[in-house]
Give the backbone structure.
Amino acid sequence: MASRTRKSGVSRRGFLGGAAGAAAGAAAMGFPAIVKAQGPVTMRWQSTWPTKDIFHEFAGDFVTKVNNMSGGDLKIELLPAGAVVKAFDLIDAVSKGTLDGGHGVIAYWYGKNSALALWGSGPAWGMDPNMVLAWHKYGGGKELQQEIYRSLNLDVVSFLYGPMPTQPLGWFKKPITKPEDFKGLKFRTVGLSIDIFTGLGAAVNALPGAEIVPAMDRGLLDAAEFNNASSDRALGFQDVSKVCMLRSFHQPSEQFEILFNRKRYDALPAKLKALIANAVDAASADMSMKAIDRYSKDYQALQQQGVKFYATPNSVLQAQLKVWDEIVARKEKENPMFKKVNDSMKAFAQRATRWQNDTNVDFRMASSYYFSKRI
C-alpha cells in the first residue's frame, strides 16, 4: 500500500490538504462546501398542569423519552401551566406558534366544538380508556379529530396517549346518597361533564386544576372533581374535604393529548417524526404502569390522612346515564360533527365491549377473595 502511494507521488497529508483547499476554493466561488453538522432542534413546551401535579410529571416523562431517544437531535424544554399561557389557552398558543408544543387533555377544548369532549367525557358506550384509545387509533377517531381541528383552523399535530383510570365522582362535604343531593351544589368539572352535573341539578364552574382547592377553601365551591388520588392529594383536596366518592360515568375513559405546532413538526426529519410516534406509545404504556403504582400509594396515604372513600350509589350512576342520553340527543341536533363522532364510537364499542366483557374474568372476585373489601 505504502509503495503505491509513493509511486503516484501523492501523500496522505498532501491529499487532505488539497481537499481542504478545494473546499475553500469552492466556497469562494459560490459553490456549496462540505455541510457542517447542524445543532439540535429545540422546542419550548408548556403543560396544562402545575409543577407538583403527577400529570406534569407524565408530561416530563414523555419529554425525557424524546430527548434521550433523539441522542441530542431534539431537545424539548417543558414549562408548567401558566408559564406562558393559561391552561385552557394552550392549544391556541401551540397553533399560533407561541409555543412549539404542549401536554393537556382534549376535553379542555370543549368550548370550540362539543364533539371534542366525547374523547373524555361521558360513558363512551361502555368502553374503558384503553378501548377509547383503540377506537381513536384504529377505529376512525383520529381522522375525525383531525377533521374537527382543520375546521377550527388549529394548526397542530395531535397524539392521544395515556389511558386514565376511572375518575372519582368528586370531593364533598358529606357523602352523596342519591341524585337529588346535587341540587344547587356548587360543583367544579370540565368538558361535557359540565352538562352531566348541570343535568343533575348542580351549579357548575369549570376551573383549572390549580384553582379548585382555593375555591373550595373560600366557599366558592361546595364540591369538585379533578382526576385521581395522586393529583387530588398534591392539589390538597384532603385539606378542604374528608369525603371522596369513587366511581362515576362523567369521565371514566379519558386520555392525555400531546400537541405540536404543525409547522415545527412538519419541518422535522422523518427519523424524528418516527421517534416521536414511538415515544408516544412508550410513554403511554409507562404512564399506565406508573399510575397504578402511584395512585394506589396515594389512595392509601389519603386514608391515613383521614379521608373516607365511598362507592357512588348505583342510583347516581343510573341518573348519570339517563342525563347523558338527554345530552347526546340535544348535542347531535345542534352539532352534526357530534353525531358523526358519537356514531363512530358506538360502532366500535358495540363489538369491542362485547369482546371484552365476554372475555375478561371478574378480577374483583379474586381480589375480594384474597383481600378485605374496602368500599
Residues 41-163+253-294 form a domain with the D-Maltodextrin-Binding Protein; domain 2 fold (CATH 3.40.190.170). The CA atoms of residues 137 and 252 lie 19 Å apart. Confidence is low (pLDDT under 50) at residues 1-36.
